[in-house]
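Repro:
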Amino acid sequence: MESPFLLLLLLFLFLSPTPSSSSSIDNFHQAFPIVEPDPGHTKLRLSREGLEAIEKITNPIAAVAVIGPYRSGKSFLLNQLLSLSCYEGFGVGHMRDTKTKGIWVWGTPIDLDINGVRTSVFYLDTEGFESVGKSNVYDDRIFALATVLSSVLIYNLPEMIREADISRLSFAVELAEEFYGRVKGQDVAFEPAKLLWLIQRDFLQGKSVQEMVNEALRRVPNTDGNKNIDMVNQIRDSLAVMGDNSTAFSLPQPHIQRTKLCDMEDVELDQLYVKRREQLKELVASIITPKIVQGKTLNGKEFVSFLEQILEALNKGEIPSTGSLVEVFNKNILEKCLKLYSEKMAKLVLPLPEESLQGAHDRSRDEVTKVFDQQHFGRHHAKKSFMQLDEEIQQVYKNVVLQNEYQSSRLCEALYTRCEDKMDQLQVLKLPSLAKFNAGFLQCNRSFEHECVGPSKTNYELRMMKMMGKSRSLFIKEYNHRLFNWLVAFSLVMVVIGRFFIKFILVEIGAWALFIFLETYTRMFWTAESLYYNPVWHFIVATWETVVYSPILDLDRWAIPLGVMVSLFILYWRCYGRKKHGSLLPLYRSNKNGPNRPRTD
């Protein structure tokens, strides 16, 4: 029989919730990796475990990073600054294998009041330089990332400053020249980290640590013109310019037995070391400021986003460079400027003449360039960003030019087709009129000249000239012949109407006279061309044009309505008007069949 205690235990385990593998971290009082090396130890990648500790912070963030050679006591120094033992703080090298791979963060920040702003200060431990199995490029990436992220950069050096230590500062110098050498009052990409030279040595040969740093940064004579010495001297010159942003501090050895430091309390350590350690804490607290990026402080999530941007930039090339950082910081500005240019060009009503489009492009480009000059980051490498912006602007402009050509071609084609249809309509006028053709011809020319704009106008002007000239020649060629035939047909129709319908003798006589004149007059000329160039024919044409078309009356348009009205009037007159009013016109009269005709046998 099972015991009641065992049954209760099983029931409790069954009802207890199973912990989730994706649960958040409960204890942040420990060190977490935030950046780790890839398997090849050449590039860096993010570690989400440590980022969670940072993302939860809502206060402005500041970071203190310690960099230096492999096994130089960086982790122990950080534990001392955080008042932590080796067993609860960052892993110390002599206790186990190298713990710090990449960059680690202490999960619990120290809250400080900096200029009235509640600031959360994180401490970062970095992988040491010059360890076995790593490339120099990897060390450069660690150094670059720590330089960019930190508000205070502690350069931890044992005993002395070497030439390699100065050379490694080249990235910090490039950052200073690229990002910090801007006009005062303008926003900077991010404020520079305060460089703290920390020399751990018991004696300095009678020199202060500041004198030692100044001596190390003096120019090296280079009578032979060695390029490497020139490069190091340039770094020295730049570091001298950054003098206001640099501090030197000495720290004696805590105890002669370094391997037992983790087991010692403060009372067992060198008291001069303890005193200097406390002074170092005060110095760090006095020079630290919240991390400023693009003119504003960062909270935890913003700091992580900033870290992601920087890591992407540093991993972009084979060697980390300030140029890649400039591209990251100017990326949003490039997009903003390109969007501004695109919006301005999108407001244009196409098509436009090429000169007007070029002028709009130049004005928009100048305005965008001013915005970029005011907001871009970097001094030297910003030229590359500007060239990229200019290339993208030119690409957008090319698309606008193509769109303008398409719209111009489409508009001019529509106008050309409209004029072509108009010319075809004028070729088949019911009553041929040269005046009406000329009026339509001029109207087409004016409308095309005024409305057709853009790069396609020249080509379509040539097409218009050919089409209009051809239409005019064809109309004039057919005009005289059509007019002559129309007049002959008109005279015969009027003979029939005057004889049988209205029975108006004068109309019939006039119609016969016109017909006989046309038929006999043409016999006087050998050719139709000689007839059409005769002054008499010109008089006939002028009379015809006056009757058929004028600005007041277009007989071609109103011929059918007027014909219907005249027909109705004649019909009315024949049926009713003559009975009431009698004949007002000299009509045909014959008594042969009248009612008073005498009867015959």
